[in-house]
Design goal:
74% helix; mainly alpha; 177 residues
Length: 177
């Protein structure tokens, strides 16, 4: 069993950089603390860890195949490095969350860091379709949901303003609203 090869590794690293960069661009345009460069690095770092783990697994399989007596001495945990990526990014994301004046901000940025790391891991393990679909859903959520959220909030505020004005005039037509 041979390694992934330089072309496959390069392809995955480039895909990771592009996906992380596109998510980061959306954050950068909104002047968020984790922007273009940060999210490229998070995605690329996660991909690198996944690639490293995959290469180490291949080496261990080759070694055990060549020397079967080593099977008892090798304890293989193929999830250990990936688990630490998620833990590490959770720590970084915690730094993006700020509590000030009874208001919490940065939660979306922290969640974006986390999902970008997960996308990077998926790319690193070769799940290009999964990572691309996840990326598209993330971008649609970050862009589309904000638009929808603004419209709903505006609609609710307008409804309250109309109700307030009607009650102020002493009219009773709340049932129509």
């Amino acid at each position: 069993m041979s390694g992934l090869g330089s072309t496959e590794i390069l392809f995955r690293l480039i895909v990771s950089s592009i996906l992380g960069g596109c998510i980061g661009l959306e954050r950068e345009l909104k002047n968020k603390s984790a922007g273009f460069v940060t999210l490229i690095l998070v995605c690329l770092g996660s991909t690198t860890i996944a690639l490293l783990q995959e290469e180490l697994l291949i080496r261990q399989i080759n070694l055990i195949t060549a020397q079967p007596n080593l099977i008892e001495s090798y304890k293989l945990d193929i999830t250990r490095l990936s688990a630490q990526v998620i833990t590490g990014v959770g720590f970084i994301g915690g730094g993006a969350i700020v509590y000030s004046n009874d208001k919490v901000s940065g939660i979306t940025t922290a969640a974006t860091l986390w999902i970008t790391a997960a996308i990077g891991l998926a790319v690193g393990y070769g799940f290009i379709f999964l990572s691309t679909v996840s990326f598209l859903i993330v971008v649609l959520t970050l862009i589309g949901m904000k638009i929808l959220e603004r419209k709903v909030i505006t609609m609710v505020k307008n409804k309250k303003a109309v109700k307030y004005n009607l009650e102020k005039e002493g009219q009773k037509i709340d049932e129509r609203l």
